[in-house]
Amino acid sequence: MRREMPGRYWRNLPETRLIPQLVAGAEARVRAMAEQVPLPAPAFHDRLRSRDSLPFQTLSETPEDLAAKIRTCTACPLHCAATQAVVGEGPVDAQIMVVGEQPGDQEDLVGRPFVGPAGQVLQETLEKVGVDRRALYLTNAVKHFRFRLQGRRRIHQSPDEAHVAACRPWLEQEIALVRPKLIVSLGATALKALDGPGRAMAERRGTLWTAGEGENAVQRLALAHPSWLLRLGDSTQGEIERGRFEEGLARLQDFCGRPDA
Ligand code: SF4
Questions:
Q1: Residue-wise pLDDT tens digits, 24-47
Q2: First-last CA distance in the chain
Q3: Are 206 and 185 in contact (CB under 8 A)?
Q4: Which of 6, 15, 28, 74 has its Cα between 20 and 30 A from that of 198?
Q5: If you average pLDDT over every residue of the chain, what do you get?
Q6: 90, 74, 86: which is closest to 111 by C-alpha?
Q7: How far, in Å, is the centroid of ligand 1 from the Cα of 107?
Q8: Please, are residues 119 and 113 in contact by the beta-carbon 8 Å criterion?
Q9: Closest protein CA for atom 3 of ligand 1
Q10: CB of 143 closer than 6 A to ligand 1?
């Protein structure tokens, strides 16, 4: 506006009275407009029904190949607002795969899984029970960060079932590549991504079971998500749940042994 007309003339224009009010409400208006932009939901759901149009038809041969495909995935709307896809990391021959829900704010910025506050809880608990994080393959059920804006803050929003379903083929490909002996799901979303919506978290938490048959059989363990433990804080329930989480992670020792001293 200053380029079009020097500021000294503004006071002569009746419209300029509106400028402070317009500036003050700009952020809320932009947010409201963004919410009104129709998400490509019908197309997205149609594409889920027609798997032929999804970019998952060829199995990836290497983790690099798979990571490159995930980074360019546009199969659901979550890629629009996130900074980048966060792909799994860890040894391709890892005995244990840990699956979380989705990247958080810091993971989205850094591009690595479990590097934020929840990842810190995981790391500390693994150290406590003598399991080396570097021996694990860490990933998420959904590869892009879902959030809502509150001012400038990005507030975590759990992915919908449709996002989980759209992203599931990538998780399947990670499992096919790594072929872990044990898959640990952290939180209800990861459990549903692996087992479908029928499996209640309460029924499975802390127990070890076998999924699949023959050469596809894999041990499974369901634990709480460390971000939930953070939300429970120092409450009595928080203390109980941290103990259960620790007990659960201690079971990983049987699959990967203790780290080098
Ligand atoms: S969340 Fe998953 S399915 Fe959706 S765009 Fe990202 S990688 Fe693709």
A1: 887 777 666 655 544 444 444 444
A2: 65
A3: no
A4: 74
A5: 86
A6: 86
A7: 15
A8: yes
A9: 167
A10: yes
